[in-house]
Structures are given as C-alpha cells and as structure tokens.
Design goal:
This protein has about 240 residues and is α/β, with parallel strands linked by helices. It has eight helices and seven strands, in the order E-H-E-H-E-H-E-H-E-H-E-H-H-E-H. It has a single domain, classed as Spore Coat Polysaccharide Biosynthesis Protein SpsA, Chain A (Alpha-Beta Complex), CATH 3.90.550.10. Helix 5 packs parallel to helix 8.
Length: about 240
C-alpha cells in the first residue's frame, strides 16, 4: 500500500537541481510537521530528473526523518509533470505543494489548512513579493491576461503554496504548463471552489531560478488558448446507481 494513505495531508516538494536547498528544506519541513494543524502530515519529495546531487541528499534526509518520502522521475518533465506524478502517487485526503526554493514558508500551510474542508483548492497570494521589478512585472501581465481569458478570479496563480483535495487534484487534466491554471481547472469540476489567502514571500537565497521570459510570460499566453479549448470540451459526470 502507498504510505501516504496513512496520512490526512501530504506536502509535495517538486525539485530540480536544488541540492543547495535540500538541508534547508529538511529543517523547515521538520519544523512544520511539528506544528501542522493536521497532526498526521507527510512530506513527499518529487525529483524531476535532477542532474545534481539532490536525489542522494533527499534519500539521506528521508532515511533519518519519519514521515519523509520520495519518488524520483526518470527524466525531467517540468513542474506540471512533477506535480502530476505527485498527485498520482498521493493517497491522503489533502495534498499541498511548495517550491524547493523556499521563497514561501511551509509554516504558512497553517494559514491555508483552516479552509480545506470548505474549499477544494486553497491557495496563497504572495504578499510583498521579494522578486525583481522585471519578474514582478512579467507576473502581473501574465496574471492579468490569464484572468481575462479564464475568468478564474485568481490573483496569483504562480504562488507555490497550495492545498487541494486529492480527489479533485487527480481529476485535473495535466499538460505542460497547466500548473498555472489550477484555479480555472478546479472550477471546471462540479463544486470546484477556491479560497485565496495572503502568505509570506522571501528572496531566493540558494540555487538558481528555473524561470525566464519564455516560461513565465510567453508560454502562459499560449496556454490560455489551450485552456479555452479544454473548457469547452471538459466532461463532468456523476454516477447515479451501480452494482459494482
């Protein structure tokens, strides 16, 4: 049996070439597990085909920390692929995720957890962002265009701190770049509502950002049209009776 089935909440930590952050992640996540509003919380690292020493370090910290687990992908798939792998391999009632760069704090999951029973998606809004002017400017344009195209009313889809009901997460149609559309994709599902909560944001102190002009601004523009195509064809169904 998948070990996450023994927990109520699993935190996914997708990572790609983040060896400089692994020990910091260990410390931050240990502190969160001690104070989580959900006592039975687990951590699931998802190695997205890293080429550095990150996998070895993750195996090391999982060996010495109870409730720490990992899966390692055979090749790099991008954040959407890593999250799909995490969703597919998670069997707790709730699943959240946080970026390995620690620009958001695991402790802020406790700001989101009070709302998980009412909303299938609870997501952070990065308050007082510590990114460069150009990076913030790109995000502002991309978020505005996405809201216009999807009407999802999400303020900050790029915030890497979210909690979803796992059954909803597993039904999200995942393609490259679709992690930016979680609010809109959740809203396609019956009963798919969301809650937005301000969370802390910090500058990156180790490692290198994997985002640039193409994947922060240009690709999301193209993906908006892909979402519009999917929205018209998305299938919702409920089983009335069965004798399975």
């Amino acid at each position: 049996m998948n070990k996450t089935a023994d927990y109520t909440f699993t935190v996914l930590v997708p990572f790609y070439n983040e060896e400089d952050n692994i020990y910091r992640l260990e410390d931050s996540l240990k502190k969160f597990l001690e104070k989580s509003l959900v006592p039975d919380t687990a951590v699931l690292f998802v190695n997205d085909g890293s080429r550095d020493n990150g996998q070895k370090l993750v195996e090391e910290i999982c060996a010495r920390n109870e409730h720490f687990y990992y899966i390692s992908l055979a090749q790099n798939t991008g954040l959407s692929g890593a999250l799909k792998a995490g969703f597919d391999n998670c069997y707790s009632k709730y699943v959240g995720y946080i970026d390995a760069d620690l620009q958001t704090s695991p402790m802020d999951f406790n700001l989101l957890l009070p709302y998980v029973e009412e909303y299938p998606l609870v997501m952070g809004i990065r308050a007082n962002r510590k990114d460069s002017f150009f990076k913030n400017f790109q995000s502002k344009i991309a978020n505005g265009f996405r809201r216009m195209m999807t009407h999802d009313n999400a303020i900050d889809t790029g915030c890497p701190l979210k909690i979803l009901r796992t059954d909803y997460a597993k039904r999200i149609p995942m393609f490259t770049g679709m992690h930016r559309f979680f609010p809109a994709l959740i809203q396609l599902q019956e009963g798919g509502t969301m809650k937005q909560v301000p969370v802390s944001h910090f500058p990156r102190t180790a490692g290198v950002s994997k985002y640039h002009l193409w994947n922060r601004l240009i690709a999301p523009f193209k993906d908006c049209f892909a979402y519009r195509w999917m929205k018209k064809r998305y299938i919702n169904y409920r089983i009335g009776k069965n004798n399975l």
